[in-house]
Amino acid sequence: MSKKQSHVTDGVTRLGHLDLPGAGQIEVQGNYAYVGHMDRPNGTSIVDVSDPRQPKIVASIEPPEHSHTHKVRICGDLMFTNVEMDKRHLLRKGNALPQVRAAFENEHGRAPSDAEAAALINVREDQIPVLDAARERGYDAGGWCIWDVSDRTAPRRLSYTKTYGFGTHRFDADERYAYISTEMEGYVGNILVIYDCADPVNPVEVSRWWMPGQHLAGGEVPTWTGYGNRLHHALRFGDELFAAVWNAGFRIIDISDIGKPTTVGEINYHPPVIEPSHTFMPIAQKIDGRRIAVGVDEEHVHKPGQPHAGMWVFDITEPGDIRALSSFHVSEMDSPWSRAGGGGRFGAHQFHEKNDGSLIYLTWFSGGLRIVDIADPALPREVGCFIPEPCAGYPSAQSNDVYVDDNRRIYMVDRNVGLDILEYTG
After folding, report:
1. 336 confidence band (pLDDT: 50, 70, 90)
2. What is the value of pTM for the model shown?
3. What domains sit in the chain, N to C, each tagged with a CATH number?
4. Half-sphere exposure of 203 (CA within 13 A, CB side)
């Protein structure tokens, strides 16, 4: 099928489009959208969306050196951004090179060539000098920032809180606290660190939460290998945090005493599911007297014979006994670019992190936007979709994040390039 085909839609109208650099997150408040970009040199953009048919960038912030700032939150006149090592998954492979080279030399009596070292850690030969340089210079920029955006055209940084390791990934924030997912010294994988931001110039740590086994410095021993069990991010709803913990599923954390976060519920379906848990949130209203939550996994490199990442519906009426009620999936046949072998990921990634009804708006990479009604939690039903046409020479859309504003307008950003402003008319 031709890659020049226009977008595919069912019940969704496109109001406007901007060829915005690839983005990891978008939030909207009033007439402005706040976008965190995936790749350097783009950091954070503020976009005027007062005319949804003609969005325009009014401010741009560059990321710190060797970092990206692909996540963003907005609370009134304060904007929060992450700071995380750029290309972190690739660069961390370089940490293994000294040991790999030593083992090779011990066995063969000579140092390995770059090609041989690359084969041992599964990278390209031309990436070996990049990995060596990154390991030698180190990285200490990871953390998060608070900005004054009372003038949307001139953001002013108020604070830069450094953490450790990779730095900060996706996170949540409100008028008082920031709920930061970050690496910290003495732990393996990202943990939760809660900061009091009453003084945005000087955030103060108030507590930490982690899964048993993560606190190496405290004598804990993980039951897993590597970084697979870690906090992706936690969202606050009332006195609870809903946390996705990657290969360990989901957790509900009680923060009625914010100084002592306590796990009160958990569910882990890994295995048999191999795609990691990405986001978890409750539904605002009970359904048939039950408290319901939804979770979404993130599609990575697809393994033939395995289902693509999808969305889950859970009964969380009893937090100590969370039960899966159903799941939702999309066929590759629903996207002309995925079924044509156009490249890129196809599968679930992220949903709008608020709800006031039974509709869930979620991105599906080359499957675009899917709007799913969970009024019947046992049988989620798609009621609308929008699949953008590829742009800027990419073989397929990679719809990455979505936000729905108070006017029910939908803002969707692409991992590679593109901002679409949409309206659900179904």
Report:
1. confident
2. 0.94
3. 8-424 (2.130.10.10)
4. 29
